[in-house]
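pinned: reference chain
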Amino acid sequence: MKMKRKCANTFFKRLLCFLLTCVALLASAVAAQAEGGAVYEIFVGSFADSNGDGVGDLKGIEDKLSYIASLNVDYIWLTPIHPSPSYHHYDVLDYYAVAPEFGTLADFDSLVSACADRGIGIILDLVVNHTSSQHPWFLQACEDVKAGREDSLKDYFNFSQGSGQHLVPGSQDWYYEGAFGGHMPDLNLDCADVKQEIASIIAFWQDHGVKGFRLDATTSYYSGDTERNAGFLRFITETAKAGDPGCYVVGEAWANGNTVLSLYASGIDSLFNFPAADAEGTFIKAALKGTGEKAAQSLASWNERVKAASPSSLDAPFLSNHDIARSRGMLRSDLKKMKAAAMLYLLMPGRPFIYYGEEIGMSGSGRDENKRLPMLWSAEGDAYSCLPPPDADQEQRLTEGVDAQAADGESLLSMYRRLTALRALAPELERGVMTALPTGEASLCAFTVTDGTTVAVIVNTSSKQDAAIDLGALGLEKCELVGCAGTDAGYIAQNAALPPVSCVVLRFPQ
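pinned: its structure tokens
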């Protein structure tokens, strides 16, 4: 498809004149908090070790804030930081404390303060579907059940007599529910006292400056009962916002699209877009196959359905997380395909989530420990390097760490920085309504996003071929350049096309 020359000349004159201004704005955006910027997920024990014991800690994260801020993030999501008998910390012993291997409450307060100075908020993982089997609540509840005490903690958990999932230690006929294993007894979320405990936990961490919560295992609150799960999500969301109206609440609902959309009835801020993530999701497939136009249609439909379910909510697109194999393997360790996937999810409406190491192309698959390997600060070793989680049985395949990639303008890290800086210049991408544009080019993911003003995003997902862009046919001939990545204005102007694995963001005149 060829572009009309008159439209091309008009547009590209504006594009070239605007480019120098955009470069300056992009540079300044690196140091500023983005509007609708990304969230950076950190598996705490694998990120940055400040004291040489091999375990990542809160002080290490604080020491690496300049690096994190270079990705223009609004928030850092910390996986559970509480004391726990497990390396992953999803079986909590004390909701009001910091695990000693991660530091102290004073270290946490220092991290929160340092983040606030950079315009970054902290999101804590809130694990309330279950506790550790060693939590004092559960230990006392088991004793109360065996002793037949009425005034007790037995209602904190789901006990049954005669049959059940897990036998109460020291009992012959009392059992308890634990969907994720005997070491993680499920809390009784219908218990008023449990709800009050959860409200107190939320208030405690908000008093310590937490600006958001990630809710673990939301489809397991009441397994198989979406309506009750939505009701409990509503309770947590309303509780968090009563303490801080600006508190950001995002939930894990690892389920099909219809279930995720049904849970938006809770009014929660965001639910992770699992249908678009992982090996079978929209982002990976489009990057692998170069099917950008199909991806735009699918993602615009999802955006519309989220808005219909909860107009004030935001999508939460991502590629992978601590429970999913690293996207590097899904994308066949192909740098171009990794960049294409980054363009797709980082320029989507909503609030994208970057899993630590995604931005440098880290590897990891198979058992969970392999998906949580240490952040590669340098292939030569780094003072902040961590030891792998226990039982990890894979080596890191990436050979270029942060230090090497930061010095390479063509690296994946450099692309992530350009994309997040570009996103910062398009605040419409936070809450806007997405509309797919029919380009006639299979590799072009093209769409507009409107929130008062309108921007257009065009991504060439092909890793081999240019893709012609007919701005006149798309109604974009009067738009001005916001910025581009993977190419420059001169190339687009000369060829009337986007080169392989590149993108452009335009703004409609007001």
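why pinned: The radius of gyration is 24 Å. The chain has 17 helices and 18 strands.
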